[in-house]
Design brief:
heterotrimer, A alpha+beta, B alpha/beta, C mainly alpha, A: alpha+beta, Fumarate Reductase Iron-sulfur Protein, Chain B, domain 2, 2 domains, 5-stranded mixed sheet, 10 helices, 7 strands, 37% helix, 13% strand, C: mainly alpha, two-stranded antiparallel ribbon, two-stranded antiparallel sheet, 3% strand
Chain lengths: 245, 607, 251
C-alpha cells in the first residue's frame, strides 16, 4: 500500500509548536481527515482535531493543507503527488487551542450583533422561488469559517475590531434580500460591520467549500446597497426631498 | 478535588441540534433562564446532515393530506408500536412548527403559488416533505441557531455532560467538562432537557457524526429513567459504499423521492419483487406506471399512477438491498445501483445539489451521468428515553427529553422526514414542559458535593491507569461486535454471543487509559464516550434478544413473522445496581376514535 | 466587534505555506495591465495623428471632441471615462489590489505594507463607491462606439465589410458584454429589489437582472477580452493609418 508523509502541526502555542511527521497508508478515495484519523487511531491518540460529520456538511474540520485553507474531509489525498509531504496546520486567523484546533468563538460573538430577521408585520408568507433563489445560495453556508480565515482583513491586518468578515456578509445578504424582511442593515454594514474594509480580493469566494459566490453575490450587492444610502449623491438628494423611496 | 466552575440556570438543555435548540428557545421564551450545552460548536450538530425534508401535512401540494393521514402513515410505518399520543401530537403540530420556522427566517423551496413545496418520501401517502433542496437540516439548525442567539440563551460550546446530578429523586443539575481545556463544570439546574441524539458511533458503517455516542441514553439510565424500544435500530437503505473513508455516508431518500431507481448488477429493478403484500397496491405495478408518476411529480401535475416501489419504507428497502447483495447481485463495491442520471442534469443539480457534490468530490461519480452505488447504513435509533408525550418528562422528576434520544414516537420504524418534525414538535413541548416544571418548583434542588466528587474521579481515572487499553482500539472492537452480532438481521445465538462479548468489552472499557493533558484530548473524551456506548449497546442487544418476532426495523432470522402479542408491549431497559435490566411494559392503548383510522389495515407479515 | 487576542503574527510579503505557483496569476495580471496601460498612454497622448483610417475611428478617440482651447491630444478628453470605469470596476479592483498593491498578492499569502490598512473606507479608495457614475458615462461612450462600429461598414456610402469592420463589431460587442455585466448595473437594474415577483414592473426588472447576472458571472472574462479587443482595434487603425498594413475588403 502506498504511504503518505503527513507533516502535522502539534502544540498548544504557535511559537512552541512544531511539525511532527507521520507515515500513513493511503487507500483509494482517502481524504486528509482520514489520514488524521488514522494518526489518532493508530499512531498518536492525543492529536487534537475538530470534526463532526465527515461529509462536508457541518464545516468543523477546517485547516490549512499545504498552506491552503481547506476542509480536511473534502481534500482528497490523491490530489497530491505521491511522495510529496502534506502539511496540515491549524487556521492562522484564530487563536490556537491545540494542534489543529483553533478558538473560533469570535465568529459567534459577531453573529450575535447582527440585527435579526424581522418579518414585515403584514407578511402573508407567500413568495416565489425566484424571490429566494439568491437567499438560498447564502443559506448553504456551513460556517466552516474558511472565508474568515483567508480574508486578509482578518488574517493579515487583524481587524477583528471593525470587520465582521465574509461569513457574516453572506448572512446579512441573506437577510437583506429576504423578500419579507423589514429591516435595512445598510448603516450597520457600513459603520459596525466594516463592509468598506473589504477590498473584494475574492479569496473568500476561492476557498468556499459550498461554492457560494460570496464576493459577487453577497458582498458587492451589499456594497451597492450601502452606496444607495450613503455615497450616491443623486439618490441621497432624492431621498432627502421625497423621503424614503 | 479538582476545581470546577459553576453556572446556574433554571433549565439546562443538553444538546444543540434541532430538538435542543427548539427546547431552549421555548423555555427561554416562557421566561426562565436557559443554558444550552453542546458537544461541538453551535450549529454543527447532526441535524445539519438531515437532507430530505420535514414531514408536515401542510397539504400545499396534495390537498388531500391532513394530520389524520400523517398520523396513520406514521403508525403504519412504526408497525403500530408507536406511542399513539406522540404520533398524534406530531402529526397535528408539525405544520405549525414548520410555518413557525419560516417566520423565523427559514427559506423553503416554493410551489408555483409561492407556498412551501413538498416532496414525496417513503411511507408517506402524500407529498409531505417541506424541504430546501437536499440540505433541509442545515436550514433548520441555522434558523433555530439564529433565533436562539438573539433570545439571550447562554450557550456552552464544546462542552460534554458526563453525569446528571440529583437531589433525592429530583434533577439538580449536571456535571461536565469543556473539551477545549478539560476544565470541569457544574450546572445547577432545576430541570434538564436531554436532546443528545443517537447512538450511531457504535456501528462501523453509519451515517451518524462522531457526536452520536449515546450520551443521553446513558445519562438517563444512570439517573434512573428507562429506555424503550432499543431493539429498533434503523438502517438507512442508501448509504455510500465507496470510497472506504466515506462508507456509510448518507445518500438522501430525496434521490428516490425525485425518481431515483434501484437496480442490481443484473440491471433488474428489484424493488418490485420485495413489496409487502399489505401495501403492494399503493405502489406502481410496472416501470411504466412508476415513470408516469415521476413525470407527473416533476411537472407538478396530478396523476392516477401510483408511486415507484423504491419509495417503500426504509426497513423494507434496506433489507431488500441487503438480500440482493447477499445473493451475489451486488455492485463491485458491495452495494446496488441507484440511478437518477436518466433525468435532466440541470434539474438533478438543482434538486439534489449536495448529493451531486458529495459524489463528484468524494467518489468521482457524476450522478447526472452515472448511477450511484449504495448500501444500508446505520442511521437512526427509534428507541430511547421513555417520556410523557405531552410534556417530554421522563420518570425522573425534572428530567426531560426530546428528539432522537427519546423513544416511542417512531415505534418500530421511523419514516423519512418524521425526524426533523419530531425535533421541533417535541423540542418545543419539552422546553415548555421543563419551563412549567421549573415554575412549579418551590425551592432549588441542591447538588451534592459527593456526587460532584464522584463525577470528577470518574473523569480523572483514565489518566491514572497504567495498564490500560487504548480507547480507539476498544472502539474498533465495539464496531466489530455490533456489526457482526447486532446488525440488520438478528438471530438468538448471534445476539447471545454479542451480549457476552459486550460484557467482556465493558470490562476492558473500565480499564481504558490515556496519556497527555486534558487540553482537547480526543482519546480522553473517547474513554467516557465508550462507557456511554457500552450501556446503549447492551440495551440494544438485550432488547433485540427479548423481542422474539420481526417487526419494522427489527428483523429476526429465527422469528421472521410478526407476533400480535408483542405488538402490545414495549421493551423497557433500566439500571438496577449498575446492571442493565429488562422488562416488558404494556403499550399505551389508542382511543377508539383514532382506531377508526385503521380499519381493515392489519398486516401479519413483517414488511 | 470585539477586540480579541491577536492571533496572527505580522508576516512578510509572500510568506505562505502554499507550495503551488500562487505568484503566477498576479504576475500575469500585472504584466497584462502594464502593457495595456503603457500602450494606451502612448497612443492616447503622443500619437494623436493616427486616429482614423477610412471608415474606422480608433475607439481611443471616439467620440471626437474638438475644442479650440484644447492643445493636447483629444483622446485625453475621452479616455478618462473608460479608464475610470475600469479603474473602479469590481473585477479590476480585485485584480490590481492583488497584482499591484499586493494586498494580498494571492490567497493565504503574506501582504505588502504596514498595519494602516483601511480598505475602501478612506480617500482615495472610498471613491470606488462612485462606480455607477462611471457606468453611466461608459454607456454614453459605448453608444458612440456602436455608432462607429456601424459606420465601419460604410465605405463611402456603400455597404462593405473589411477586416476592420469585423474587428470593430467584435470589439463593441465585447465592450457591451463587459459594460452591461457591470456589478453596479446589476444592482441598479434589479439587484436592489428584495422582491422580484411583486409587480409587473419588478418582474420585468427581474428578467433584465437575470440576463445581466449571466453576463456578470463572466465579468472577468469580458473585462480581459474587451480590454484586448479595444487595444487591438486601436492598433489596427494605427497600423492602417501609419501605412504599415492594408485593410482587406471581404466584400
Amino acid at each position: 500500500m502506498p504511504e503518505a508523509i503527513m507533516k502535522v502541526f502539534r502544540g498548544i502555542s504557535r511559537e512552541a509548536g512544531e511539525f511532527k511527521t507521520y507515515k500513513v497508508p493511503v487507500e483509494e478515495g482517502m481524504v486528509v481527515l482520514d489520514a488524521i484519523h488514522y494518526i489518532q487511531g493508530f499512531l498518536d491518540p492525543e492529536l487534537s482535531v475538530r470534526w463532526n460529520c465527515k461529509a462536508a456538511k457541518c464545516g468543523s474540520c477546517s485547516a490549512e493543507v499545504n498552506g491552503y485553507p481547506s476542509l480536511m474531509c473534502k481534500t482528497r489525498m490523491d490530489r497530491f503527488p505521491e511522495g510529496q509531504e502534506i502539511t496540515v496546520e491549524p487556521l492562522k486567523t484564530f487563536p490556537l487551542v491545540k494542534d489543529l484546533v483553533t478558538d473560533v468563538s469570535w465568529n459567534y460573538e459577531v453573529n450575535k450583533k447582527i440585527p435579526p430577521f424581522t418579518p414585515k408585520p403584514d407578511a402573508d408568507w407567500t413568495f416565489m422561488q425566484e424571490d429566494i433563489e439568491r437567499v438560498q445560495e447564502f443559506r448553504k453556508c456551513i460556517e466552516c469559517f474558511l472565508c474568515q480565515d483567508v480574508c486578509h482583513v482578518l488574517r493579515d491586518h487583524d481587524r477583528k475590531d471593525v470587520f465582521a468578515g465574509p461569513r457574516f456578509f453572506v448572512r446579512m445578504a441573506g437577510l437583506e434580500m429576504h423578500p419579507l424582511d423589514a429591516l435595512n442593515r445598510a448603516e450597520f454594514l457600513k459603520d459596525h460591520a466594516g463592509l468598506g474594509f473589504c477590498n473584494i480580493t475574492k479569496c473568500c469566494t476561492e476557498v468556499c467549500p459550498e461554492e457560494i459566490h460570496i464576493t459577487d453575490n453577497a458582498i458587492i450587492p451589499l456594497k451597492e446597497r450601502v452606496v444607495d444610502e450613503f455615497y450616491d449623491p443623486v439618490l441621497m438628494f432624492f431621498k432627502k426631498i421625497f423621503g424614503k423611496s | 478535588m479538582a476545581d470546577y466552575e459553576v453556572h446556574e440556570h433554571d433549565v439546562l438543555v443538553v444538546g444543540a441540534g434541532g430538538a435542543g435548540l427548539r427546547a431552549a428557545i421555548e423555555a427561554s421564551a416562557s421566561g426562565v433562564s436557559v443554558g444550552l450545552v453542546c458537544k461541538s460548536l453551535l450549529g454543527k450538530a447532526h441535524t445539519v446532515m438531515a437532507e430530505g425534508g420535514i414531514a408536515a401535512a401542510l397539504a400545499n401540494v396534495d390537498a388531500e393530506d391532513g394530520w389524520q393521514t400523517h398520523f396513520r402513515d406514521t403508525m403504519n410505518g412504526g408497525k403500530m408500536l408507536n406511542n399513539w399520543r406522540m404520533a398524534q401530537l406530531h402529526a397535528q403540530e408539525a405544520p405549525d412548527r414548520v410555518r413557525e420556522l419560516e417566520q423565523w427566517g427559514a427559506v423553503f423551496d416554493r410551489t408555483r403559488e409561492g407556498k412551501i413545496l413538498q416532496r414525496a418520501f417513503g411511507g408517506h401517502t402524500w407529498k409531505r416533505l417541506c424541504h430546501v433542496g437536499d440540505r433541509t437540516g442545515l436550514e433548520m439548525i441555522r434558523t433555530l441557531q439564529d433565533r436562539g442567539v438573539h433570545q439571550g440563551i447562554d450557550v456552552y460550546m464544546e462542552c460534554a455532560v458526563t453525569r446528571l446530578l440529583k437531589d433525592g429523586q429530583r434533577i439538580a443539575g449536571a456535571f461536565g467538562y469543556f473539551r477545549e481545556d478539560g476544565r470541569y463544570v457544574v450546572f445547577k439546574a432545576k430541570a434538564v432537557v436531554l436532546a443528545t441524539g443517537g447512538v450511531g458511533r457504535m456501528f462501523p458503517v453509519t451515517s451518524n457524526s462522531w457526536e452520536y455516542t449515546a450520551d443521553g441514553h446513558a445519562l438517563a439510565l444512570r439517573a434512573g429513567a428507562d429506555l424503550i424500544d432499543m431493539e429498533f435500530v434503523q438502517f438507512h437503505p442508501t448509504g455510500m459504499v465507496w470510497p472506504p473513508g466515506v462508507r456509510g455516508l448518507l445518500v438522501t431518500e430525496g434521490v428516490r423521492g425525485e425518481g431515483g431507481i434501484l437496480r442490481n448488477s443484473a440491471g433488474e429493478r428489484f424493488m418490485f419483487k420485495y413489496l409487502p403484500e399489505a401495501t403492494r397496491k399503493d405502489y406502481a405495478e410496472t416501470e411504466d406506471e412508476a415513470k408516469r408518476w415521476v413525470d407527473a411529480a416533476i411537472a407538478g401535475q396530478k396523476t392516477d399512477a401510483r408511486r415507484p416501489p423504491e419509495l417503500s419504507t426504509r426497513d423494507n428497502v434496506a433489507r431488500s438491498i441487503y438480500l440482493e447483495v447477499k445473493a451475489g447481485r451486488g455492485t463491485p463495491h458491495g452495494g446496488v445501483f441507484l440511478d437518477i442520471s436518466y433525468q435532466d442534469a440541470e434539474r438533478v443539480k438543482r434538486k439534489l445539489p449536495s448529493m451531486y457534490h458529495q459524489f463528484k468530490e468524494l467518489a468521482d461519480v457524476d450522478i447526472t451521468r452515472q448511477p450511484m452505488e449504495v448500501g444500508p447504513t446505520m442511521h437512526y435509533i427509534m428507541g430511547g428515553v421513555r417520556v410523557d408525550a405531552d410534556t417530554g418528562e421522563s420518570r425522573v422528576p425534572g428530567l426531560f427529553g426530546a428528539g432522537e434520544v427519546t423513544g416511542g414516537m417512531h415505534g418500530a420504524n421511523r419514516l423519512g422526514g418524521n425526524s426533523l418534525s419530531d425535533l421541533i414538535v417535541f423540542g418545543r413541548r419539552a422546553g415548555l414542559g421543563a419551563a412549567n416544571y421549573v415554575k412549579a418548583l418551590n425551592a432549588r434542588p441542591q447538588c451534592s458535593d459527593d456526587e460532584i466528587k464522584a463525577a470528577v474521579e470518574e473523569m480523572e481515572a483514565p489518566f491514572k491507569r497504567t495498564d490500560g487499553k487504548n480507547p480507539y482500539e476498544l472502539q474498533r472492537k465495539l464496531h466489530e461486535i455490533m456489526s457482526t452480532y447486532v446488525g440488520i438481521f438478528r438471530e438468538e445465538k448471534d445476539l447471545k454471543t454479542g451480549i457476552a462479548r459486550l460484557e467482556e468489552l465493558t470490562d476492558e472499557v473500565r480499564h481504558a487509559a490515556i496519556t497527555g493533558s486534558k487540553t482537547y484530548n480526543p482519546g480522553w473524551h473517547m474513554c467516557h464516550d465508550l462507557t456511554n456506548m457500552m450501556l446503549a449497546a447492551q440495551a440494544i442487544a438485550q432488547s433485540a434478544l427479548s423481542r422474539k418476532e420481526s417487526r419494522g426495523a427489527h428483523s429476526r432470522l429465527d422469528y421472521p413473522d410478526t407476533d400480535p402479542h408483542l405488538g402490545k408491549v414495549n421493551t423497557s431497559i433500566y439500571l438496577e445496581g449498575g446492571e442493565v435490566k429488562l422488562k416488558q411494559t404494556p403499550l399505551p392503548e389508542m382511543p377508539e376514535e383514532l382506531k377508526q383510522l385503521f380499519v381493515k389495515k392489519e398486516a401479519t407479515r413483517n414488511a | 466587534m470585539n477586540k480579541v487576542e491577536i492571533a496572527v503574527a505580522p508576516e512578510k510579503l509572500g510568506a505562505t505555506a502554499r507550495n503551488d505557483n500562487w505568484w503566477v496569476e498576479p504576475a500575469l495580471v500585472a504584466t497584462g495591465f502594464t502593457i495595456f496601460i503603457v500602450y494606451a498612454t502612448w497612443r492616447g497622448l503622443f500619437e494623436p495623428q493616427y486616429f482614423e483610417w477610412g471608415p474606422y475611428l480608433s475607439p481611443f478617440y471616439s467620440p471626437r471632441i474638438l475644442l479650440d482651447w484644447w492643445h493636447w491630444s483629444p483622446a485625453i478628453l475621452v479616455l478618462w471615462v473608460p479608464a475610470g470605469f475600469r479603474a473602479t470596476c469590481y473585477y479590476y479592483r480585485k485584480a490590481y489590489y492583488r497584482a499591484y498593491f499586493l494586498d494580498p498578492p494571492a490567497c493565504a499569502v503574506g501582504h505588502l505594507g504596514g498595519d494602516k490598512y483601511c480598505g475602501e473606507t478612506t480617500f482615495p479608495f472610498v471613491l470606488q463607491n462612485l462606480h455607477r457614475y462611471f457606468f453611466y458615462l461608459a454607456v454614453a461612450v459605448l453608444a458612440f462606439l456602436w455608432y462607429d462600429a456601424i459606420r465601419a461598414f460604410d465605405f463611402h456610402g456603400q455597404f462593405g465589410v473589411g477586416v476592420g469592420s469585423l474587428i470593430f463589431l467584435a470589439n463593441v460587442v465585447f465592450l457591451s458584454f463587459y459594460t452591461f455585466g457591470c456589478h453596479a448595473y446589476r444592482h441598479l437594474v434589479g439587484g436592489k429589489l428584495d422582491c422580484f415577483s411583486c409587480s409587473a414592473r419588478t418582474k420585468t426588472r427581474f428578467k433584465i437582472w437575470s440576463v445581466v447576472t449571466k453576463l456578470n458571472e463572466h465579468h472577468m472574462l469580458w473585462a480581459w477580452v474587451s480590454l484586448f479587443s479595444v487595444g487591438f482595434a486601436d492598433l489596427y487603425v494605427r497600423l492602417l493609418a501609419g501605412h504599415v498594413i492594408t485593410d482587406i475588403r471581404l466584400f
